Amino acid sequence: MTVGKMSVSLDASLLEFMAHYQETHQLRSRSEVVAQALTLLRDQELETQYAAALSEWQGSGEADLWDHVAADGLQEETSAAR
């Protein structure tokens, strides 16, 4: 993993929160706090993008077409067949 270094200026209240979070979650450094925060932010952004893509796909009519072919070749098991 390649690591980069940067300088960040934060409001005092965010610095206090960071220190508290680091301590209560037993993280080794402030960098770990920032990495966790950015990972959560990235995951949230991906979730939003996936939801938008799904909505677009469902609105395009492709979902309806998929529903008609998704079970091709498969038969539902009935209670009589058991």
Blueprint of the fold:
Blueprint: H1 12-24, H2 30-59, H3 62-69
End-to-end Cα distance, whole Å, is 53 Å
The number of strands is 0
Radius of gyration: 24 Å
Q: Tell me roughly what share of residues is in helical segments.
A: 55-70%
Mean pLDDT: 88
Beta-strand content bin: under 5%
Which structural traits does this protein have?
single chain
Structure description:
With 82 residues, this protein is mainly α. The protein has a domain at 30-59. 62% of the residues lie in helices and 0% in strands. The chain has three helices and no strands. The chain has helices at residues 12-24, 30-59, 62-69. 0% of the residues are buried. The mean pLDDT is 88. This is Antitoxin. It comes from Deinococcus daejeonensis.
